[in-house]
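Dear colleague,

Following up on Tuesday's group meeting, I ran the structure prediction for the three-component complex that the binding team flagged. I've pasted the input sequences exactly as they went in, so you can double-check that nothing got truncated or mislabelled along the way. The structure tokens for the whole assembly follow below. Feel free to forward this to whoever is handling the docking comparison.

Inputs:
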Amino acid sequence: MVTGGTEFDLLHWIPLAPLFAAVLHGVLLVVVRRTVSEWITVAISCGAITASFVISCAAFARMVRLPDESRLLVDHLYTWIGAGVGSQAFSTELAFQFDPLSAVMTLVVSGVGALIHFYSWGYMKEDEREDKGFQRFFCYLNLFSFAMLLLVLADNLVLMFLGWEGVGLCSYLLIGFWYSDRNNAYAGSKAFIVNRIGDLGFIVGMLLLFSMLAEAGHPTVGFQDIERYFAQIADVELDLPAWLPGGPSYRAVNVVGLCFFIGACGKSAQIPLHVWLPDAMAGPTPVSALIHAATMVTAGVYLVCRMSFLYAAAPEASAIIAWTGALTAALGAVLALVQTDIKKVLAYSTMSQLGFMFVAVGCGAYAAAMFHLATHAFMQALLFLAAGSVILAMQHEQNIDAMGGLRRRIPRTHWTFLIGALALSGVLPFAGFFSKDAILVAAYGAEVAGGPWLYRLMLATAGLTALYLFRLYFRVFRGKGRAPRGLRDRMEDPPGSMVVPLYVLSGLAIFAGLAGFPQAWGDLGWVDIEESNSFANFLAPVLAGSEREGLAHEIEYRLTLRAVLAAITGTGLAWWLYLQRPTWPEKIRSSFHRLHHVLVAKFWVDEIYGVLLVRPLVAISDRLLYRGIDAGLIDGLLVNGVARSIRALAANGLRYVQSGLIQAYMFLMLVGAVAIVALLMR
Amino acid sequence: MLTEYTGVLVILAISLVLIAVLLGIHLRVGPRREFPSKQDPFECGERPVTSPRRRIAVKFYVVAILFVVFDVEAIYFYPWGTVFRELGWFGYASILVFTLPLVVGLFYEWMKGGLDW
Amino acid sequence: MIAPPEISPSVLAPIGFTAIGAMVILVQDALLTRGSSLLGRRVTPAYAGTLNAFTAMLFLSLALYVTVVAFASGDSLVFQLANPVYQQDRFGSFATALLVVVGILTCALSVSYLSELGINHGAYYALVLASITGAIFLVGAIDLLGVYVGLELMTIPIYVLAGFDRARLRSNEAAIKYFVIGSFATAILLYGMALIYGATGTTSFGAIRDAFDPTSPVAMLGVGLILIGFAFKIASVPFHQWAPDVYEGAPAPITAYMSVAVKAAAFTALLRFVATAIGPETEQLSDVFAAFAVLSMIVGNLMAVIQENVKRMLAYSSIGHAGALLIGLVTGSPGGYAAIAFYLVVYAFMNLGAFGVVIALARRGQECERVDDFAGLARTRPGLAAAMTLFMLSLAGIPGTAGFMAKFNLIVVAIRADMIWLPITLVVTSVISLFYYLRIPVLMTMREPSEPPSRTGIASGEALALCLCAAVVLFLGFFPNHGMLPWLGLELPVLDWASDSVTDLFGS
């Protein structure tokens, strides 16, 4: 039960509005046999998500008027699960909370979500012709918005898990949206299954945390309560099997933290559960933008930030997170360099940027992670939506080798894509610069094992980011046009409903960074020091470790300089290689063809998983569990066998007693009567 | 507690044994010959004139049942009649309640043509 | 001058309404067929039948009203002539209300069915009302003679009703079978009563209780024979064999009425007899009931598996449910009796609903009786198919339906009474029962219809009755006790009513 906090009755409408829209779509899909008109569909969906966004803004406005320490809005609907009495009483509430952390997520999800809903209107238009695809798409999209908003607004772990699973489900539905192609369906399944593995971590973490709290006398799953009583369990030790390294006794918070991180890994595509994200690009591009770039994949980061008090007390777990994030960031950046599918490049870029965020949370810079999360949502969504426009213009050709020189054909798309690329590369006045800089600063000052190397790796990755993004940009928009002549002449920018979201996101990608102006720059006298880095200040009350001492400002300037240099180097290199010396990349590729082969094969991770995990699992499931136990033992022997023998018993034995002759019936009654009387008079 | 009924049990057993023995002797010893007149229904030694499986008009049953009903009803009136004065109005009301369903039944029967032969 | 006994008119009000109703219908029907036109319409047999049904329902509604008033007041009133014969208490009123509602639903389900068969005579409704009169008297009887009169008044009209479809041989066979075996059972019952009277010197329940000696063989023999009489009425193994044949042959509404009302009335009377005349804690009784229960559950559910006729299948299922109900008697506790009372309510609605669907599908010349007739129904008659699915799920005891709550209640009570094997038998046989209950939804949804539906409409009476049954089954499935209808300002704690009512039996 949430104690304290200001009541805000409208809060529950933020997730419920899209839910109602989804249900309405579902009813229309099932009940109304004809295809519903496009306008009605769009009005329902976009109306709902816009309503969510408006209510979110209202809630935000209400919250900022409260003093810093008590910035918490709550909305309690009803007790969802209640059990136990007295001190053992446990209840899970269906309640929402809206604190600064939730606020950032809610605004991003509903805001970017609304833009992408509008964008989808144009993008999915041609799906109207068959299978009610248009409406089905918006139904799923609304359902996703509901689940995601539930996830970020939930006031307890169980409710959050409900949203967590919900977004996984919608992700599955939308990746496999064009299910008639078998590969799309497989991609959806892969995403779902890999996510399930992560979910196991989430569940185990949740149960461990709950059991520890219950042992300490506070059986609760509410975030506020967990945080309140966390101090009592911070030093609990857990005994784990001795064969684990570093054992046999572990600090429980580390174990719990790692369990939650496994969940976050699955959702946010971190090593080793990153394999699903590139395949997820099989879904429609708006889905990739909304789910696999801006919102769902960041749920892992949100989870860790939500539990920041726990991670602040678990340095070992944090170190693992930081290094996992760093490796993922580097891996994603390297793999993005060799991809030729425009969406896959962006997918690896997403993975890499998520790695950046995990580096930040691993180093304890939760505010920096959230900042990058927000700006990344704008930038990556922008890139994806622009890529979607390119794909539409190319009539669903996604290979960048077939593009080039599109700058003049689709100028609006070109400009917005360029803004997105500049921003994400971390070029100075754009949003990505500020957020990435904050992460690099955090990595530099981190007290993590191998700290300096962490920073160097991240700096290199930042350079690579610029390189692969501008490789993409130059290959697609500059240089010689490689598209067929006829196609090139028919190319045009998308209609208004798709361009406006691009413009809005461009604006955000340019200016959003100013919200997180670095503290150090206050020295330069350009801005008032009190006002600077208002983003981190805003989040400070809800994130742990915000009072950590910053680096000396001189060091920060140096770091900033390095970051800018890395971005410029990457950009310049891309310009040199792909525009000035277009033949060089081919030469490099052939001279390092082994390395290139490894990269294109993505280090054979999928294949290794296939041999080590998937195939044995399928074999066991099929031969032993399905054919042996399920079909053979349970279905064959227990269910059908018993049913058959009961039938035989009734048909061959009992049936003859029911002869239809009155005298026989009476005789049986008499026998029964004698038996009953004997039983009574014994 | 059942010991007092031992005699009953003994008689039951003896009678069962006796039945079994008699039937058994009959089955083993008795000759079995069949001829048409043996299959005829027994009518005091006379040969049957018509088949006994003749249909009888259902009206007959209706009238018979009605007769039985009102016959029995009349029996109830006699004891009531003898103490009619002592029972007073309550007794009168009771016999009315008793008679009413019968009257209604008779009315129904009449209107439906149950009494038309 | 003999002083007349004082009789409170409200004691006899429910019986009075049903009895007078029966007579009114007879008179009305006799007059109607002769009249050429009424209320501007020519009197056809169907019109007359509808009017008769309405009259029946009107009187049943009046009876329901006075019963509810009596239940709400919570008083115990005794109808006494020379001896106390009939008692109106909350237990009796609870059962009476159920019986009357069942009567109303039976009438509603009958109208168009009888018209289709061309047997929509006024006598039908009069007989139903007469039977209900007997049933009401039975549930309130506190004297063996009262029990006997009530039982006979309830049963004899059913003998007639079972054979009401005179043109059909099966119906005649059912009537004769029921009559012959029923007389046999009644004779046994009467013999038991005589023995009890011989052993105790009285026929009044309270006095029997005082004079009863469980070690006396005569008294125990009498009790045993009475139990057999009741076991026959509730169709418990091994006195069940008439049920499938009679249920199959009788017109479907009468089958529904028999399986629900007769069972409820006999059960209620049995509860009252055991609780107030013998003593529920008598150990030998529990053994007998346990034997009845186990045998009924096993035989009923096993035999239902191989049936191809829906009415016959429901007959065996009703035997199985009788076995389940008997578990409550084995416990001999107020909780067990309350569980039975609740189960009876639930069973009434779900079984009436199931038969209602069969009735709604029956058309001139062909009853929809075979299980295969349900093939593809979900396509051709989706509404009826949905209702049938709900009733089947409820009969099987799937959560979310009233059937689950009823069984759950019973199992809880049994486990509290430290019984293990009876609840286990109940659960196992319920699993077996899934086989034949779910077979119908499977056929309805997964098989193509064999022939186009003979009729697509549904009579309004049938529709209303089915809707009510479905609503109750769902409602009690979710709110067995704290059912609040805030928008009506109503509170329907059915479970509380059941347990309140049985306190009358254990009160003193």
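Strands of chain A lie at 6-7, 73-83, 90-98, 237-239, 249-251.

Cheers,
M.
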